[in-house]
Amino acid sequence: MAEKNILVTGANGQLGKEMQVIAALYPKYDFLFVTKEELSIDDIAEVRKYFDTHDIGVCVNCAAYTAVDKAETETEKAFQVNAVAVGNLAIVCKEQHALFIHISTDYVFDGTGISPYKEDYPVNPVNAYGASKLKGEELALQNNPETVVIRTSWVYSSFGNNFVKTMLRLMKEREAINVVDDQVGSPTYAADLATAIMKIVEQASHNKIRAGVYNFSNQGVINWHQFASAIKELSQSHCIVNPIPSSQYPTPAKRPQYSVMDTTKIQQTFGVTIPGWKDSLKRCIELLSK
């Protein structure tokens, strides 16, 4: 497999961009990064043609419809990208004997848990985005049982739009901000997730692949207010960060209250080392301040 190409979809997203950064550390692989304009993954004929032409050995699907609130009204669009396209990639990877790594989300859970979710915890999404991502997982594993699904949560990066960058901007613009303190989870620095993905790819090239669902997020459990407070501290901002309940910040899509996932399985199976959330946040903020 080492001589084959690695296809990364969703090249313009946070994880896609982090995969482009990390690619430089893996010169033995040829990476192909595609945007939706360059490859319509919801068109299976186009996907087949692309795989045939480029001899794909691994496909990492970072493409996703991630506008959680918009998905409530653009449900069909969300399912097209997060489910139909995923099913297509899974089918073609199976046909071509290519490894398929698909990125999913903590939003497949309903947020009523009280201890970290293991991979086999019952799924029950509370919004359209979560439902579309769950359907994607199901199609991936049905169409290609050799798929590796990685669920992640609260993703941020120095690229794209995310909570960290929004907070840094608001803290410059305002004297005080309000952030919800009753939604609990674990942030994920997309650069750390990219590292974990490549660790899995490396093992696959030695035929040591264990398909199935895995959880990945940085270590530690916090709420959004604590996350914002850490961003304030690390960026040395003087902005006041007020805690508020979710009821004071209504959104079109319901959010899970509890999103903490147990990451033991990915660590033990693939020897992945996961940094603490604050260490990773510090690295990202240092990068952004350069």
What is the tally of beta strands? Answer: 12
What oligomeric state do these chains adopt? single chain
Gross morphology is globular
Major beta sheet summary = 6 strands, parallel
Low-confidence residue ranges:
none
H/E element sequence: EHEHEHEHEEHEEEHEEHEHH
Q: What's the number of helices? A: 9
Strand content: 15-25%
Rg of Cα set: 19 Å
The CATH first-level class of the domain at 5-160 and 188-217 and 260-274 comes to Alpha Beta
CATH-derived topology of the domain at 5-160 and 188-217 and 260-274:
Rossmann fold
Widest beta sheet: strand line-up: 2-1-3-4-5-10
The percentage helix is 40-55%
Give a written overview of the molecule.
The protein has 290 residues and is of the alpha/beta class. It has a domain at 5-160 and 188-217 and 260-274: NAD(P)-binding Rossmann-like Domain (Rossmann fold, 3-Layer(aba) Sandwich), CATH 3.40.50.720. It is built from 9 helices and 12 strands. It has helices spanning 14-23, 44-54, 75-96, 128-143, 163-173, 190-204, 224-234, 264-270, 277-289; strands spanning 5-9, 30-34, 56-61, 99-105, 148-152, 155-156, 176-180, 184-185, 188-189, 212-216, 222-223, 240-244. The chain has a 6-stranded parallel beta sheet, sandwiched between helices. Strands 6-9 form a two-stranded parallel sheet. α1 links the parallel β1 (5-9) and β2 (30-34). α1 (14-23) crosses α6, α2 (44-54) packs parallel to α3 (75-96) and α5 crosses α7 (224-234). The mean pLDDT is 96.
